[in-house]
Amino acid sequence: MIDDLLEPLIAFRRDIHAHPELGFCEHRTAGRIAEQLRALGLEVHEGIGGTGVVGVLKNGTSTRSIGLRADMDALPIHEQTNLPYASKTHGSFHGCGHDGHVAMLLGAAQHLARSRNFDGTVNFFFQPAEEGLGGAREMVKEGLFERFPCERVFGLHNWPDLPAGTIATRPGPIMAAADRFEISLEGRGGHAAIPQDTPDAILAAASLVTQLNSIVARRIAPTASAVLSITQIHGGHTHNVIPAEVSVSGTVRTFDAAVRDVIEDALRKIAAGVAMAHDVTAHVDYQRCYPATINDAQAAQEALEAARTVGNAQIAPEPAFTSEDFAFMLQACQGAYIWLGQAKAEGSVPLHNPHYDFNDDVLGLGIRLHVALAERHLAKG
Prior knowledge:
This protein is α/β, with parallel strands linked by helices. It has helices at residues 6-18, 27-39, 98-115, 135-141, 144-147, 201-212, 215-219, 257-278, 297-308, 326-332, 363-377, and strands at 43-48, 52-59, 65-71, 120-127, 152-163, 166-169, 172-175, 177-186, 190-191, 226-235, 241-242, 245-254, 281-290, 293-295, 312-315, 335-343.
């Protein structure tokens, strides 16, 4: 029955791909999703967390419930695939496969609405703004789980590092917390030929970069996991002027809240020490963006059991240092985040690459996994 759904869903996915929309601007995408859900007879709620859509499907008499989530937004990247359905919006591109996630969850809604092989409520969450803007956080803040209670919530993401047909998850951490920082070092500025009269913000920045890169190696236990990366340095406009200001920016990725605290504290102390040593002023802007994505152990086991009925299931050996705002949903409701392999035999293009495209060959497997999760959790009898 699911195979009958694939051709129109592939067409739908490619239409979404050709008309990508950035976070909190997914108006066309959300409208098309709501239209499809209403045609299936679902109860539909729009405008949740900005442009989020929720479809509610009830069957039988049980009060049990489950949530299934797909993200909708595109990335601010110029597509370079030259596909016939390539993005028609310059600088916006479904380079993370969210178009495929939407199609898979719609397919699950179509199948479950037709088969009715469950007893309880399935909530289909179509989430905006996953790419750095915290759409899941906004949906939760607007009472997502109060309005649509769930005993479990599951999120599925395509994963080019795994072969097509493979499904993986793990108990505990599966994606990292993501923080960002910017440190501004301010001196006075002056002539490059008279450095003794001018506090050197560039020299201070060089020292700062070196010391920041020692935090993980010297402040964090070898048994823990963390990444601190400097990704931007800005300062100066010409060859003969010592600039008055230099900024240093980067990201921190962790899995443990205590490790996260140690890194932020060390970063602030190092910035203050460098500023004092070089007679400049340091301003630190440290933002904790996404928490770590932590799977509930029992929910992860349930996901693996469901996955074994439809594909090659495996326990992911280690978490990824990329981040995911599904973490906010997991803070509010027990559940698990799941990777769906999509690599072809000849290899696969990584996520967030301008040549990436979702592999339509795994669309059916993703639908079957969603269906299996719902039918197992809401089994009749």
